[in-house]
Amino acid sequence: MTLVRPRSYAETAAAVRDRGPRGVIARGLGRAYGDAAQNAGGHVLDMTGLNRVRSVDTEHGEAVCDAGVSLHRLMEVLLPLGWFVPVTPGTRQVTVGGAVCADIHGKNHHAEGGFARHVRSLDLLTADGEVRTVTPGTDLFDATTGGMGLTGVVLGATLRLLPVETSLMTVDTERATDLDDLMARLTAGDHRYRYSVAWIDLLARGSATGRAVLTRGDHAPLDALPARSRRDPLAFRPGTLPPAPRFLPDGLLRRGTVGLFNELWYRRAPRSRTGELQRLSAFFHPLDGVPDWNRIYGRSGFVQYQFVVGHERADALRRVVGMLARRRCPSFLAVLKRFGPADPGWLSFPMAGWTLALDIPAGLPGLGRFLDELDEVVAEAGGRVYLAKDARLRPETLAAMYPRLGDFRALRAQLDPDGVFASDLARRLGL
Amino acid sequence: MQDAFGIPQSLLVLGGSSEIALAIARRLVAHRTRTVLLAGRPSPRLDAAAAELRGLGADARTVAFDAEDTDSHEELLGKLFADGDIDMVLLAFGVLGDPEHDEERPQSAVRVARTNYTGALSAGLVCGQALRRQGHGTLAVLSSFAAVRARRGNFVYGSSKAGLDAFAQGLGDALYGTGARVMVVRPGFVRTRMTSGLTEAPLATDPDTVAAAVEHGLRRRRETVWVPGGLRLVAAALRLLPRPLFRRLTL
Ligand SMILES: Cc1cc2nc3c(=O)[nH]c(=O)nc-3n(C[C@H](O)[C@H](O)[C@H](O)COP(=O)(O)OP(=O)(O)OC[C@H]3O[C@@H](n4cnc5c(N)ncnc54)[C@H](O)[C@@H]3O)c2cc1C
Ligand SMILES: NC(=O)c1ccc[n+]([C@@H]2O[C@H](COP(=O)([O-])OP(=O)(O)OC[C@H]3O[C@@H](n4cnc5c(N)ncnc54)[C@H](OP(=O)(O)O)[C@@H]3O)[C@@H](O)[C@H]2O)c1
Q1: Does A419 touch chain B (CB under 8 A)?
Q2: Which chain positions lie within coiled-coil regions (chain B) (predicted)?
């Protein structure tokens, strides 16, 4: 795999022109869990060299930036101006290009949709070497958002921003005793919050299956701050914790330890607390504070699994949670959330319904087949698995999950007949 | 592509009628391997193997391939790779020879070497090149416990496997960092037609056990797989045994 780091639109175009026989794919900060930004034997464009925030319209709340700009950088620039990124995932270390091409979702999806909904236009370098301005409502836009970099290289984007008065969050926390209680609470109360997510304990069995801690909130208004913080209400102080130790024994992630961790997490959470002020980073990106957090999974690493099923198929969610609990997968911090209406992207992941995301140590025997079984439950329910977190889906299951796949392939065949853009994900799934 | 668990989508078997290879292929197909190319000397057995895998849902076909005909390897194997990525190559061909008589018949002993070592060297280098170019893939080589130390009882076979084993390790090092990898598999006594009629050695296993170990090795990205796993310790002990003692071992 040859890595190239262009620093301008022109260098990017040249790098695409000079690709090898196995094609080229763009990469942002490489935070996709699977093989989406990899291209075995071919070329990969590291887009982080295109890192300029070109302009911020503080009146209308719009920013024009290069695709390689990270959301972290955008926050640094925007917060002091009283604006915030429209969608943020569980880490700030993703680029605008990666956010567009995976059409990422945040805790506000139920209210405000995925990242692509807040994009006014894109500069897209396509296989023919042209740079096109792509706007919402066109096929190319809908193929690109969620299209995992396979329609071309996103060079830059114009984003619509969210106005904020402070850099703090007001957060309400409550506990749910089991899955039904959790789903009822999320359904009843989500519309009152911009951000909502629940951590759910998949190791608790019996009647406690699905017990959870809900955290929901919004950006704190100025008058919610104590007097001393009001002087510098928009300061952005992420802060970091010490890195995870390097040589954790593989055995650490046994059910016992994970179970204990989950137990503590649940017990530590208040039964109910409202209006707590939290830093942005604590609320949105707890893992960013722990460098190399993934080391806790030991040598064989882990796989992420995230799926969504429609509201009307809550039975499928219950079934999967039951399967995970029975299987006693040592997974911590599984996350459950309600999505709002689907985004228009053809391969965009979110759709109205329930989404569950979890990590499982990859070394677990029989895991591959078990996840295949989960896929079947999800596909049968008309749901889908998130491609940005996938490294194992079967190609035949994919078509059932993404009904617009045919359109996507047809557009690719027309736009890129020689297969200029290629990735391991595309090879594996025949995108 | 290999998935997160190392399971390939496409598989090329060199020595397609091998019982061990078929057990491995069956197991991989049950996961998600779709395309299987069985390369081997044309025979009803080879056809039957392909038919069985098709019955399991794979797109399996046979390709005429002779390990001893090294002149043909580059072109023949090159064509297979030109048709599309191959995620895993299983080098399974091998002959046991006739341990009783090979010592006295240099001609037939040379055949053992030509198949197990020279043939594997040639096919292994061609496949290694192709995997390097595509930037991913696993070459799994069926070496043997016999490669650890050539024993009095079958040193012709043992030395050919020792050569193969050393070659495969070297190729693995050469490919390190290219995305392609080599996995050396060292089974002990496996009950197949190759060993039928021989007295079973201790820790004898079945092809399905080898298949399970290979799957596990793929998942953990192992460079070496012993079947059964305990043979690793036996091998370590065997290597340390003084010659006079080793000579007298009837293994
Ligand atoms: C700790 C953690 C938490 C996460 N939480 C969430 C979450 O809450 N919600 C969510 O939706 N996701 C989440 N993710 C996944 C992550 O947001 C996405 O994978 C995102 O796409 C990563 O962006 P990146 O810049 O690292 O892109 P990469 O991982 O480098 O690439 C992702 C895809 O985008 C393409 N791409 C990147 N840049 C460009 C470009 N300039 N032009 C064309 N194609 C491009 C790549 O080809 C690839 O297909 C999380 C990941 C981590 C590690
Ligand atoms: N069985 C054991 O105890 C054991 C233990 C350790 C290692 N191994 C190794 O495992 C591998 C598979 O053995 P197995 O037990 O499965 O026995 P097997 O069924 O006899 O397989 C041997 C295979 O090699 C093929 N072959 C031999 N010469 C060939 C040539 N010139 N060109 C192409 N193919 C050729 C045979 O094909 P034909 O059908 O055309 O003859 C057959 O498919 C061998 O390399 C063996 O050395 C076996």
Answers
A1: no
A2: none
